[in-house]
Amino acid sequence: MTIYVIANQKGGVGKTTLSTNLAVALSKKGKTTLVDGDDQQSSIKWSKRRLQDSITTIALKDNLKEELQQLKQNNKYIVLDVAGRDSAEFRSALLTADVLIIPTQPSQTDIEVLPFVLRLVNTAKQVNKNLKTFVVLNKAPTNNKSTEIDAALELLQQVKSVKTLNTILRDRKQFRDAMIEGKSVLEMGSSKAKDELNEFLVEIL
Ligand SMILES: Nc1ncnc2c1ncn2[C@@H]1O[C@H](COP(=O)(O)OP(=O)(O)OP(=O)(O)O)[C@@H](O)[C@H]1O
Ligand SMILES: [Mg+2]
């Protein structure tokens, strides 16, 4: 039983994209439930566009702790997509999760938010000692001449206490298409997006 939480206090960084793609990957290995903790219900909407379903997608109700306790009994994996802000659900999720994945865009303004998130993570770790935390760059420019990624990695080096994945997920149309079609990029034709997602999975699973 493993609980993955995908979170960041920033909006639009790829939390739902990573949650849905991760849930599809995990569902090939065992029963997986995707929990949508965001009022905007992007994960729920994605699941409604899905034709085949190996994944149960549910909206988070009131009590996250109770809900996760119940889900733990008959799932091998739980993926929780939380809202892009500090919230009671986010704090509660940090206390129960096994793995926290924080997607971030490589811009300085996005990375400057991370210390705020990590402060909450460090507090949670005093109770949830085994919480693994990873930061992953997402929507990174595909242009190799861009210096933005190097600048971001340099800033991230200064953010101690968290591992930045080697995988860099770039801005690829296939991630957007997959979302619209209710799929994971794993279920689409071969692409750089799929390669990058696979590389990401090797690092976190
Ligand atoms: N690697 C990527 N390449 C291209 N587009 C991406 C990528 N990751 C996410 N997107 C697109 O960026 C937008 C925001 O992504 P997503 O909805 O996953 O972010 P979010 O963090 O869940 O946002 P919110 O805070 O609103 O919940 C979506 O249109 C999504 O398709
Ligand atoms: Mg979202």
From TrEMBL:
Stretches of the chain forming a coiled coil according to its record: 54-81
A Pfam family annotated for this UniProt entry: CbiA
Entries under InterPro entries matching the protein: CobQ/CobB/MinD/ParA_Nub-bd_dom, DNA_Partitioning_ATPase, P-loop_NTPase
The CobQ/CobB/MinD/ParA nucleotide binding domain, residue ranges: 5-184
Protein name: ATPase
Keywords per UniProt: Coiled coil
SUPFAM superfamilies for this protein: P-loop containing nucleoside triphosphate hydrolases
Domain of life: Bacteria
